[in-house]
Amino acid sequence: MTEAPVPGPPAAGSTEPRRPRSWLSPLRWFAALCSETERVDPAGVLGWCVAALSLATVGAVGYLALIASASQHLHISWFILFYFPLCFLTTSIAKGYAKTTFVDIMLALFSAALGAWFIFNEGRYQDWTRGFSEMEIGDRIAAFGIIGITIELCRRSVGSGLTSLIPLAIGYVALGHLMTGSFRHQGIELDYFLDMLTISTDGIFDSPLFVAAGYAFLFVLFGNFFVMMGGGQLFFDVAAVVTGRMIGGPAKACVVSSGLYGSISGSPVADVATTGPVSIPIMVRLGLPATNAAAIETAASCGGSMLPPVMGAVAFMMADFTGIAYAKIALYALVPALIYYAGIMILVHFEARTLGIGRLPAEHIVGLSRAFAVNWPSVLPIAALMWLLMAGYSPSYIAAGSTLAVLVASWLKPGAGIGPKRFLDGCVETCKSMVPLAASVAAAGLIMGCIELTGLSGKFTLLLFQLSGGLVWPSLLIAGFVLILLGTGMPTTGVYLMGVALLAPVLVTKFGLPVMEVHMFMLFFACLSAISPPVAPAAFAAGAIAGANPFTIGNLACKYAIGGFLLPFMFIYNNGMLLQGAWDKVAIDTALGVMLVFMAGVAAHGYIIKMRLPVIVRLAFAALTFGIMWPVSNIQLASAAASVVLYLALYAFARRTPKPAPA
To answer: Which residues pair with 371 in a beta bridge?
Structure first.
């Protein structure tokens, strides 16, 4: 039996008719268009588009922030025109998908068209009167479009946590008038809703996105260029010199270097991803369990947004909401941030004494003179940043001046010069790293607009007041819990913004707490939400590096950062820690803050040297810790004195009768 020949394609010039297409052909065509295409191929069209959009975004942000007197709405419109298309080209529609699809390209073009629409109609929007000006069909399409791409960009870059709040907020606006009870509102017309969220500066075009599109973007650019010129290595070398020869030197050097880098980056996950691959293996090699090493890195990295001088993007938004100068906010945050890191160092020291962890090997300590001899140009941008900060310049000028200082200083270090190609790489990397921040603040502005439109903040204030019985401390506990709960699906900035919308009004107006202390309270818990279970993104990043369970890492990181969970309740009433008041008050409150994290560390660790503490003794230290927090000076001083006496007595006993280290 002869086998039938396999039919092949028609020969060239053949007149044989083509086979008719089936009804599935259009679906196959669309699927092919949505299939993977290379995302960042430098020689490809998309690669050139990403590079061009990155340069355009940097140029527009720099020009509008420093030179032009554009309105807030116009400033954000230009940011949408250039940056939102780049976000869609670099963040795929599918989670973890490393390619660009046809849908991504279409959304990029659509977002550019929306930015162009808002720019073209800026003159009309400047004369807009809410509730009186008539919306046209183009305004409605643009409004629905910008809301839609904000939700989609948030979904693909931030995740379901923050994204899920947007339909809930919009649903409450649409259907809240059907509810009964105190959460009912009077009903809101569609045009008024679209007007407030997209034409006025109370929704997507509110101050969070304006701050992110202005000086926060420039500070991220500064941080990326600083790392490119080798500034991160200087941080580690200095940390190794300062702490490397101490007991537990590797872990202490990690805490210092992660804190310094985190202040520049402002992102716990980015901090872990940058410093973790160096510090975690060193700690493990010198005897620290992988889980503990990753937890120390995680706890140290999440405090970057608390630590001056940069404090990530949150400090700039805090300055906008509170009306307090950025330089003053950085000054107020200095002592609490240092005490937070002191608390981590104390627990690291206890852990090292218990486990017998030694010092950093000599080959990792290059010496201070050699570190500065090799990397002294990296000091110049930090010096420029500090000088501009203390001179009282605006955040835009501080960021731009510091970035310029990095570019100049890079050429003073052999092999580190940032030329055109590296400059372009830095711009692209900045734009990519800014995607979650831009998406989260745009989404937060949308949610905050819905909250303001419906008066939900006042209703939430009433609910919180009822749950706490009108008492301050229960309200603070609930506020801290809410912020941590919000942090399960949001970046630090998004958590802080939600706190501003929901919690700040009740804490400031109902209870009369000072504005600065309340916002610093929310900042601390927004940072700590990155390590708090059940979703601790920084712990997952550290777990990938250490090869350890991220849930265990998150729990241990909370132990190392225990002082951070307690300090906000302390400085609400002891504002000397925020450098407010006479020098004696500042000194006493600071000393009490150090005592707080020290005794909390003793209670959490459960050992003095290698002697295991009985449960009753640990509970006694915990009770004295809460006594130090209690807002009555006599109780605070008595608790501090009693805790010192108890610790010294147990320390002397442990020195005489050492116990074996735990398994």
So the answer is: none
